[in-house]
Design goal:
The chain has 171 residues and is mainly alpha-helical. Helix content is 88%, strand content 0%. The longest helix has 105 residues, at 63-167.
Length: 171
Amino acid sequence: MNKNDHSIIGNLLSLSSSIDPRERIRRIAFAITRAVGSPTSIIIHSVIFAGSFFAAYDDWISWDRMLLILTTIVSLEAIYLSIFIQMTINFTTEDIEEVSEDIEEMQEDIGELQEDVEEISEDVEEITEDGAEDEAAEERRKNEQKKTLVDIQTDLRKLMQDIEKLQQPKQ
């Protein structure tokens, strides 16, 4: 047995009763499918099969009886392995569905964030436009003030000329 097989068996033995029964079954199913798929499992099965044929060949057991026992054991093992493998597939499918739901939620969140970013962009554009409008209005106001000042200066010059004309002695 290799190091991983010991850890798998240790994990099976260490399952405490405080764990949810469904989780315990899930862990057992994963541990069994991992153990059966290991190189140690291949070696053990090969030794058992070779030993069975050697026992029949050496007449320790009859061929019919050996084949009957071996076929029964292999059939039961196949049945249980297929059940554990299907359980593992079902658990994995549930995990994939949960991940898929999480991904959908993330996509919705991303969509909402994109909408928020677009709204912020629109607000920035409005602020920029308002700033440009404010600047244009300020420029217009300054131009109007300049024009008014020029008009006042012109009017003052005319008044000054009129006053000078009035102050000159009449001839």
